[in-house]
Specification:
single chain; mainly beta; Immunoglobulin-like; 3-stranded antiparallel β-sheet; 1 helix; disordered N terminus
């Protein structure tokens, strides 16, 4: 008998980028949760003094697909994929964190999530 709740695997990796003195650290390894359970992925950062216009971003990458923007802190729009899928991120500038969370996970949330210090995915016009 199959249970109505399935395991959701959210694969995480560290993204430590250096641009000047900028760095980002996030939850390591795999996070395994049951469908419907809340999920929180941590992200902390250090931006250089010259990076005053740097804002954190969350990206998602599904198997065999390129990364794409999930949530951004600056200019957040209701059309952001993360908001449409029930994700949110809390930006605490004092603690230098931008934690991603969702109150109830779904099987379709299984992916690799990246926290980044800048808008790193370029968009092409069709």
């Amino acid at each position: 008998m199959t249970l109505p709740w399935l395991s959701v695997v959210v694969v995480m990796s560290i993204l430590k980028g250096t641009y000047g003195a900028d760095s980002v650290t996030q939850t390591e390894g795999s996070v395994i949760i049951r469908q419907g359970d809340p999920v929180r992925l941590n992200c902390t950062y250090q931006f250089s003094l010259t990076a005053t216009l740097t804002y954190p971003f969350w990206y998602v990458q599904f198997p065999s697909q390129p990364p794409r923007l999930l949530l951004r802190d600056l200019g957040r729009e209701d059309s952001d994929e993360g908001i449409r899928k029930g994700f949110n991120a809390t930006h605490d500038k004092k603690l230098k964190s931008f934690h991603l969370w969702k109150p109830a996970s779904e099987l379709s949330d299984s992916a690799t999530y990246y926290c980044a210090a800048s808008d790193t995915v370029t968009r092409s016009s069709a």
